[in-house]
Task: inverse folding
């Protein structure tokens, strides 16, 4: 059996790199990529928040923020692809399974990798399934950690109004007043 060192592997792997640039067409697909990347990074923050659970209590305010941030990113395809609010609002709490949330967020990101770099068309039904699964995880997480998801969503919007008083600006995204934002997130918790 042949072996390959990392230097040779790195050189060899370039041959199969998608070099044609992004194959995203139109704002809805750009927004969907933003959604998938955002969900993935927020799920990473959820993992960070619970990984040392045995050492200390989970910060429920932080968990509610991360859950609401995931829903913020899910709102993009809900809006852009006119997904069914009724179905999403009828979901009932079930067991929260963190490893499955990680898998489902990775599958959502993988779907967008195939759209963005392989040119695979967006399938609205597949998007709907991903959004439904991920939103169900947020409902389950809220139930598991004992926070009100509706309140977390309202607090999230208040946090974003603090951060972006007029509209989104990259400067404010990178230069946050975390104390002021935390105050917004703690309301009613």
Result:
């Amino acid at each position: 059996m042949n072996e390959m060192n990392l230097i040779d592997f790195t050189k060899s792997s370039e041959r199969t790199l998608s070099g044609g640039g992004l194959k995203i067409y139109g704002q809805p697909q750009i927004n969907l990529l933003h959604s998938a990347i955002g969900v993935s990074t927020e799920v990473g923050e959820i993992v960070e928040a619970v990984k040392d659970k045995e050492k200390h209590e989970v910060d429920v305010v932080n968990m509610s923020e991360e859950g609401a941030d995931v829903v913020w990113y899910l709102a993009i395809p809900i809006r852009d692809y006119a997904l069914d609010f009724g179905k999403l609002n009828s979901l009932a709490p079930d067991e929260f399974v963190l490893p499955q949330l990680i898998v489902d967020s990775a599958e959502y990101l993988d779907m967008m990798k195939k759209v963005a770099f392989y040119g695979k068309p967006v399938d609205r039904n597949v998007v709907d399934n991903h959004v439904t699964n991920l939103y169900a995880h947020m409902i389950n997480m809220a139930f598991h950690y004992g926070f009100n998801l509706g309140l977390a969503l309202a607090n999230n919007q208040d946090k974003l109004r603090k951060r972006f008083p007029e509209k989104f600006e990259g400067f404010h995204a990178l230069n946050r007043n975390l104390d002021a934002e935390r105050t917004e997130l703690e309301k009613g918790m």
Notes: The radius of gyration is 19 Å. The longest helix spans residues 27-51. The mean pLDDT is 87. The CA atoms of residues 40 and 105 lie 6 Å apart.
